[in-house]
User: What shape does this take?
Amino acid sequence: DTIKTEHATHLVIQQQGSEFILLFFELQQPLLSGTAEEQLAAFEELPFVEAKCISKVVMSA
Assistant: This one.
C-alpha cells in the first residue's frame, strides 16, 4: 500500500552500457476555452507543452 500510482502519458528509454533507464512523464496540458476550433488554434500557438517526469526506473541487463 505504499506504492503511489501515477498516470504516465509518455515514456523515454535510454541505454547506458548494461543499464536501461526508463523515464515516465505526464503531459501538463494547459486549460483552453472556446470552441473546438478556437482551442485548436490556441494549442497550435503554444511554444511548448511541459512534461513532468513522474518516475525513473533503472534496470540492469
The chain has one domain: 10-60. The chain has a mean pLDDT of 93. The radius of gyration is 17 Å.
